[in-house]
Amino acid sequence: MSAIQNNTVSNSASNSASNSASNGINTKSIGGSATAALNASASSAAQIQDQFMTLLVAQMKYQDPTDPMKSAEMTSQMAQISTVEGVNKLNSSMNSLLSQMQSSQAFQASSLVGKSVLVPGNTLNLTKGQATFGVQLDAPASSLKVNILNGAGQSVDVMTLGPQPAGTVPLAWDGKDINGNQLPDGPYRFQLAANVAGKNINPTGLATANVTGILNPTANTSAQIMLDNNTTTNISNVAQIR
Fold first, then answer.
1. What's the CA dihedral at 169, 174, 178, 182 to 10 degrees?
2. Element (H, E) at 211
3. Which of the 8 DSSP states describes residue 28?
4. Which residues form the FlgD/Vpr Ig-like domain (predicted)?
5. Quick check: is 135 in a domain?
6. Cα dihedral sign for 220, 222, 223, 224?
7. 107 is a domain residue
8. Is 111 within the bounds of a domain?
9. Are 125 and 213 part of one and the same domain?
10. pTM (2 d.p.)
């Protein structure tokens, strides 16, 4: 028996079930071809459902009485449209959740404007003889050493600190060199060395920066904050708000 085409269903609408049987029409093939056709032509789950149900009703109406459609086949075809509709609803829910998360991130980022934060970095700015920075430790350290460098990369001071807890540790420098002389205000850098569980490591440094603005999240990025050192960073990188 030859497979029925879509126009066969339309042209056979006036024929009786017995004529369909005697002409040898194989209406069972509608299910597979209909699914492929619907996936290619329908732009939404609602359109797919309408077209699917139309073809399914036609299939049942003009089926061969001597070989009727099995209930399992009908259940399988109904499950196909339910799956398509379910996936569509899931995508809609996920998009809505993503939009809510992005809005929440943007709100959180906007609340940081004008505030000072600690973010990953190794720079510090000496202002009026004071500079703040920090370190991120994954585990408690038995000792911590901070080497302060000037703009030329020369070491001007060394801070030897005792045990430090795990987590975000805020630090401060008084702007004096190794001999106790006050250094001029301006940009400096720092290097870190810590001893954790008997091993020497270089932990993550945290620089102090002021938040000057935000970049709203997009479909592929999360909220970004703009800093006064002309850089941007993800809001999730903020280790501490000062």
1. 160
2. strand 204-215
3. G
4. 121-195
5. yes
6. negative
7. no
8. no
9. yes
10. 0.59
Contact in structure between 223 and 235 (CB atoms under 8 Å) = yes
Q: Are residues 49 and 126 in the same domain?
A: no
DSSP letter at 26 equals B
73 plus 141 within the same structural domain: no
Q: How many structural domains is the chain composed of?
A: 2
Best CA proximity match to 1, nearest among 31, 27, 19: 27
Tokens at 170, concatenated: 């805020």
The verdict on 146 and 212 lying in the same domain is yes
Contact 135, 148 (CB under 8 A): no
Where do the DSSP E strands lie in 2-140? 116-120, 123-126, 131-137
Listed residues 90, 107, 133: the one ending a domain: 90
In this structure, the answer to whether residues 32 and 121 fall within a common structural domain is no
Neighbours of 196 (CB within 10 A): 18
Taking only the tens of pLDDT, the chain with its 242 residues reads 433 344 443 444 344 434 443 444 343 344 444 444 444 444 555 666 677 677 767 766 666 555 555 555 656 766 666 676 666 676 777 677 666 666 676 777 788 899 999 999 999 999 999 999 999 999 999 999 999 999 999 999 999 999 999 999 999 999 999 999 999 999 999 999 999 989 999 999 999 999 999 887 776 677 789 999 889 998 889 999 98
Range of the domain at 67: 6-90
Do residues 229 and 238 touch, judged by C-beta distance below 8 A?
no
